[in-house]
From TrEMBL:
<dbReference type="InterPro" id="IPR047175">
    <property type="entry name" value="CotS-like"/>
</dbReference>
<protein>
    <recommendedName>
        <fullName>Spore coat protein YutH</fullName>
    </recommendedName>
</protein>
<keyword id="KW-0175">Coiled coil</keyword>
<feature type="coiled-coil region">
    <location>
        <begin position="113"/>
        <end position="140"/>
    </location>
</feature>
<dbReference type="InterPro" id="IPR011009">
    <property type="entry name" value="Kinase-like_dom_sf"/>
</dbReference>
<feature type="coiled-coil region">
    <location>
        <begin position="278"/>
        <end position="305"/>
    </location>
</feature>
Length: 319
């Protein structure tokens, strides 16, 4: 995929005479947008940028009134990022909370790609598929180095996944009326590293998705002694703007417990292209195992922080 020269394409296909102030433009591939309703995405981006003052990239219409433009044999969307993306005016937790609060109640019908309706089944299917690979690898006479690490650690991570799935089932029974959906991210990291929101990466889901992934990222980025203070600061800032309900806490906890990094890494090995770098995947697998204790400490911290507001697995509750 060859990124087009935005100047030549803009000169031909766009009219920017009504754009106020200096602009910085770039093209984003259309096929990398999670949701396909560009009109709705652009409307939300404009609202969040103009009305809420959040650091959001806005989408630019072409002369035909569309957001997608053909160039170099591919479809692209012209993006106009916010002017100041080198610093946040508020913390990551507060920024995320305002994004969620401002978009709560977003219409799911406009974003049918969301997997929110089939989430539990999807988690179960992914775990079942890896369990079959585990059975095969255990019986191999000469497993690869990756497969040896995989079979060694699969029982632990599958146990975490089973606990997470059971929590999701229990939550769906105990709280059948789920919280309203909002705009989040396919995989939220933090606003310090990626300060500008890109609508291409937005996913309509409940807010626990972003919170869990933000906390998971903290586990991988923080030194062991820094995990609990960093998590507390992130959640304090978030809840000072948008307090968490019991169901949101339970869903956040269950998603964090589900070992998505381990599962995605294994899926890339077993289902990825033949030229997949096995050494790189094995390194990710080993790093995940090294971070397991840190993850447990974080989960125990959350169980203690929100005790009496949801039910954590007994082996993660602090005594």
């Amino acid at each position: 995929m060859s990124t087009p020269d935005w100047r030549s394409v803009v000169a031909k296909d766009y009219d920017l005479s009504h754009t106020d102030g200096p602009i910085r433009l770039y093209f984003h591939p259309l096929n990398q947008f999670y949701h396909h309703n560009l009109e709705q995405l652009a409307g939300w981006a404009d609202y969040l940028s103009i009305e809420a003052g959040l650091p959001v990239c806005r989408m630019v219409r072409n002369r035909e009134g569309r957001y997608d433009t053909e160039a170099n044999g591919e479809s692209w969307v012209l993006m106009n990022p916010p002017q100041q993306t080198d610093r946040l005016e508020r913390s990551a937790g507060a920024t995320l909370a305002e994004l969620h609060a401002r978009t709560t109640g977003v219409d799911l019908a406009a974003f049918p790609e969301s997997s929110v309706q089939s989430k539990i089944e999807h988690l179960e299917n992914r775990l079942d598929a890896l369990e079959k690979k585990y059975d095969v690898c255990r019986n191999e006479e000469q497993p690869s180095s990756f497969e040896r690490v995989f079979t060694e650690h699969f029982p632990y991570f599958s146990g975490c996944a089973e606990n997470a799935i059971q929590m999701a089932v229990d939550e769906s029974i105990n709280f059948p009326n789920a919280e309203p959906l909002c705009i989040g991210h396919y995989r939220f990291v933090d606003y310090e590293r990626f300060p500008a929101d890109n609508p291409a990466h937005w996913v309509v889901d409940d807010r626990s998705r972003d919170l869990a992934e933000g906390l998971r990222a903290l586990t991988w980025q923080s030194a062991r002694s820094d995990i609990e203070p960093a998590a507390a600061a992130f959640l304090d800032d978030y809840e000072s703007f948008f307090p968490l309900s019991g169901p949101a806490i339970g869903k956040m906890y269950g998603r964090l417990l589900y070992p998505i990094t381990f599962i995605e890494c294994c899926e890339r090995y077993f289902n990825g292209p033949a030229n997949t770098d096995e050494r790189e995947l094995e390194l990710v697998l080993r790093q995940g195992e090294e971070k397991a204790k840190d993850q447990e400490r974080l989960l125990s911290f959350l169980a203690d922080r929100y005790k009496d507001r949801f039910y954590a697995p007994e082996w993660l509750a602090r005594t």
